[in-house]
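Hi X.,

You mentioned you wanted examples for the new student's onboarding notes, showing what a folding record looks like when two proteins sit in one file. Here is a clean example. The first protein comes first, with its sequence line followed by its structure tokens.
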Amino acid sequence: IIKEKYSLLNNKTNHYILNLENFKKICKKYNVTISEYLTALYAYAIYKTIYDKSSNKEIVINVPIDLRKHYKIESFSNFFTCMDIQVNISNNKNISFNKILNQVHKEFEKKLTLENIKKYLSRDVKLGTNIIIRIIPLCIKKKLMKYISKITTKTTTTLSNIGQIKIDEPYKSYIDNIMVLASVGINQKVKCTICSYENNLTITINSNLLKNNLEEEFYNLLIKYVGKVKLESNKI
């Protein structure tokens, strides 16, 4: 559903910095989480810019789930699974942000249950413990997984909320802000990451698309629906 031209040599990074406490008030007003609100706004920006409106496909955003808080495990290692948040555009070519937000909220409520999380985790464990996959040499496995991912992926993009990042007191004076970046490629040409540090909520869009219309639209939507936004970019 993304028909924009891209280049693997082109990499654009835009950081949108919000006041965390103010943004929490906006989310509370709509009775949604930070992840839900920003997933909806991100999907809306995609719909208004790079989404192929002649397509009947849904916008599908892959959202990682941090399993540590669900299983009360303290670990510095990655412990996550993923769910797909689907935004149905096909029957509504002039969909509003509020309708997308309502869809996203229902998707999170439906899919972010302990029962479903167990299903996602079981799926990942089965894949990782498959005997045939385990005996394949790593160099072949990497190429094979890339190929399988290319022909089977149904996701439009990824949005990952890392959450709050805490720094020990002696080091705080050296740090103004923290940003998280996710790499992009052929399968997913644009990705979004979110994290907060102190009272900064930083949203990062990383892209190898040649045009900058998605990033500009997302910025305009943040101003419209959130308010004051600080933008930092590597785009010349």
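Then the second protein repeats the pattern, sequence line and then tokens:
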Amino acid sequence: MIMNKEKNDSKTNNEDVIWFDPLETNAIRVRGFAWFDNDRRYRRLPASSDSLVARVSPNVARLSGDAAGGQIHFRTDSDTVEIAAELAAPSLMSHMTIASQGGFDCYVGSDFSDLKFYATTTFPVDAKSYRYRFFAGVPGDKLVVLNFPLYNRVESVRVGVKPGAILRDPGDFPQPGRIVVYGTSITQGACASRPGLCYTNILSRRLGIEFINLGFSGSAFGEPEIAELVSEVSGARMFVLDYEANAGTNGRLYRTLEDFIKIIRGRYPNAPIVVVSRIKYLFDELNPGTLGKMRRELREFQKNVVSALREKGDDAVYFVDGSGFFPDDYHEFTVDSVHPNDIGFYRIAEGLEKEIRKILKI
């Protein structure tokens, strides 16, 4: 527990808010970055791999700096909570909101099962830094969860609370371990309207477990070097491989999927591995003899790889048909006939939640 009359990283400002840096405050926990305890940075791959990843995939090296899936957790009795953040770049992507690209959103509850969405940061579109008050006049002890931006690098972040308020360690997630998701721009969060609606963040709240989001927009090709890094995440309870949308059209899925699973098995002999095929795309329906045929073949390939591994004795590998996540009006669930909107992300989370609960018995 920290009474914020103790040393903090800035003086009280004109609005009587005291600022705390998660890098320096034990009562504030940072989750969702698998190597955070070692590297003390808001990045999704380890510092020790920087040169390797830059060589294997410059795009993954760049995107690993995006803070997708990161979370800040703390308990406080402050009736006011603010945030101050510095970003690497303005949030200028045209098909996503600036709030999802470079903003944080805020959930509050009495405990993890009671979390409710409160607010999302707002700031000028060209801003590289901002300050935002999530709420004021909310009394009582509370758990606060802040979700990091999905498509920008966070250089620094501070949490502001009232002078004299208490910061307390939020405790662990209700469920032990981590679920590691390797995937594409959809996994990274394109195009949720705010960070908490990325499907990995939805699932983290609904299942009460830490998710490690290793979605790399347009760059999930299943390279063995990246697979090794994915397998190195400590405390993994499950792995989800959702990268058909990138590796399917260029043939890399055929060449990498089985080896990717075997690399994970080398470090996690018994952890469930879930292979998820791609969600429905309108263009598959419009071109059934070309794109539609290719997607059917890719789906069958993934299903067959899983079946073959299970026949060889690996009964902890599973196939989930992602095309079944959306109902018949699936075309309403995206922003561009490819990337999900908030309804689409909710449906993906709903579909995966059923499978994860069944497999992990939670």
